[in-house]
Amino acid sequence: MKVAEDQVVEEDTGFQDDEESFFQDIDLLQKHGINMADIKKMKLVGICTVKGIQMTTRKALCNIKGLSEAKVEKIKEAAGKMLNVGFQTAFEYSAKRKQVFNITTGSQEFDKLLGGGIESMAITEAFGEFRTGKTQLSHTFCVTAQLPGEDGYSGGKVIFIDTENTFRPDRLKDIADRFNVDHGAVLDNVLYARAYTSEHQMELLDFVAAKFHEEGGVFKLLIIDSIMALFRVDFSGRGELAERQQKLAQMLSRLQKISEEYNVAVFVTNQMTADPGAGMSFQADPKKPIGGHILAHASTTRISLRKGRAEMRIAKIFDRYPRVPICLRMRPRSPSALEELVTPKSEEEETRVSTVPCLRQFKVI
What we know:
8-stranded mixed sheet; DNA polymerase, domain 1; DNA_recomb/repair_RecA-like; 2 domains; two-stranded antiparallel sheet; Rossmann fold
């Protein structure tokens, strides 16, 4: 198969220049009297931009070895002079939102379901039981994020954090064949890391921030598969639930800030748990995604994946702003064609659609 490698991560100078100017390098603080030694200390913990300082509390900055309260105040003051820390009009903010891009799922109808694909400056969560297609979607995004898209999107590199040892480069090759792109180019543009504990997972985010800063505008997507697996192992029982949720909130806050700071999309998968109280309320499905309200509030878009007949999978927008109650059916592991969407027009119809099989099928890969 003869393939042109320039199909992957197409070079678009103008577009990348806009991305690079999206953030201000922390080195610019030297002009405001901050010495380079203190700047390097902040870079070591993943604070690489001026906006990153604004997103970090004084308490967290004081915890950095070598930074006193006086130094922190001086750093905060310098960052405040370089940024607009006050209010802005909705018109001004809308101009900033124009830089948001969408990464395709590889299916036109699935993109319609998501409003164009997964968007940058946001966290998209996909949850479901085992073998519902979560990891499959993650692998697909590793390839589609590199392809040129609409509205000047030129494609970019991907960082994949694997917490369940499910990442398979050979799977990327199969997906690359579908899009007729070079295997080597696709694999070179995916940066992979295996996380072994929840603490390690958090530490990797410092590396992610440093990498996004080092290659500004090059990386477009961060994938974590899955976000909660290691938290379930490291924290057990109700006695450690409060601590687990606090650590989870800190990680999700970090992800939100990274997505806004560097204009990247964040895609995370999540596991399910049985709800012991569901039987008392006569719920049709007693299972629910783990992570509680903290994860639910942090995710901009939540995709529910569940099994249908045989290899059929049903995808539904569980939560999104703006709200789009649409569901569809897919085959994540075998060829088929998407033919129809079902859009509920009322709460009663939405409940029916969520429990009755949708009419058609589509292929994610």
